[in-house]
């Protein structure tokens, strides 16, 4: 990977502040911002249609780059405007009937759980959480014991929104597939930090957002759908891009994951997402992951040495999210006090990961998520500021 000076020079936003919110909405590299702005300017000159036509190859290359990142074919990728949109586009296309079962992760994300509850209510199906083991990860034995052929879909969250654990996805997928259930992976907090390989993960679908660890523009995301499966699923909503009007009473779905896309989109943002993914590929996803993991591990270690600070991360394999609380201080106050020192962290609230937070009797946690462009000197500044607040 490039040295840190180069990474920081590529990231204009990082100077003069300590940015620890790549789990929320990261700082994009300059190439991402430049790509998106250049396209907006071109649209203003020649109109959106001609501007897009000039970039058809580059637009297709966005999916090629994403495919390279996750080891999948470009035709298996649908571009989307958020992770939740991508997740639900797939989820609502899976047939569901009375007495069917949907399993969700113990640290699943609120939007996924809400969609599951809504569909279950309409279909007469049930939603059941997979228990977490003593480390907080998906309990594989419990999952093994609870699956049967009534389970139609298992929602796995790779890395939860509220802490740095990494779930054993491939193992859980194997158990789900034994009974013929589909596996939908929420990779919102893993794409862009953990190397992702569809062949290894062996999930049926994967959703993620652009703005977090991938460092793309807001309003972007993508969905991967296993090719043989995409051919059998009909999205809940169609338009003239996802289907073709073939006769007065007929239409035909397009092939591949493209059937999960609508025609209209923010072309500038998509090109920006492509630039973000290419930038990551050039840095090397493994090196980026190493850099993030080192920073997060350092924060966990040093934070836990400060009196009154409790690191809340669970799991045995860790990722780049570091969650903690400070005795006698509300997490939102910690966030706001750090913000006045030009240090950006966020708060993860109970409602985002309700089951997990309830089980641990937590209302909220402070969330620090360093990307590879954050220097150790900046981490020291953050640690010093937390220590001061805790004392
Ligand atoms: C942020 C997040 C989402 C939602 O992403 P959007 O792009 O806001 O829809 C889903 N799952 C997890 C685990 C998240 O952290």
CATH architecture annotation of the largest domain: 3-Layer(aba) Sandwich
Figure out the total of helices.
15
**Major sheet size, sense and barrel closure:** 7 strands, mixed
Report the average pLDDT across residues: 97
Helix content: 40-55%
Low-confidence stretches: none
CATH topology of the largest domain: Aspartate Aminotransferase, domain 2
Q: What is the number of strand segments?
A: 15
- CATH superfamily annotation of the largest domain: Type I PLP-dependent aspartate aminotransferase-like (Major domain)
Content of β-strand:
15-25%
Question: What does the overall shape look like?
Answer: globular
Q: What is the N-to-C succession of helices and strands?
A: HEHHHEHEHEHEHEHEEHEEHHEEHEEHEH
How many domain regions? 2
User: What's the alpha carbon Rg, rounded to whole Å?
Assistant: 21 Å
What is the strand arrangement across the widest sheet?
2-8-7-6-5-3-4
Protein name: Probable hercynylcysteine sulfoxide lyase
Catalytic activity: S-(hercyn-2-yl)-L-cysteine S-oxide + AH2 + H(+) = ergothioneine + pyruvate + A + NH4(+)
Enzyme class: lyase
Pfam family, one: Aminotran_5
Describe the overall structure.
By secondary structure, this protein is an alpha/beta fold. It has two domains: 4-27 and 284-390, Aspartate Aminotransferase, domain 1, CATH 3.90.1150; 31-282, Aspartate Aminotransferase, domain 2 (3-Layer(aba) Sandwich). The longest helix is centred in the C-terminal third of the chain and has 20 residues, at 285-304. The mean pLDDT is 97. It contains 15 helices and 15 strands. Pyridoxal-5'-phosphate is lined by residues 82-84, 109, 111, 157, 160-161, 186, 188-189, 209, 221.
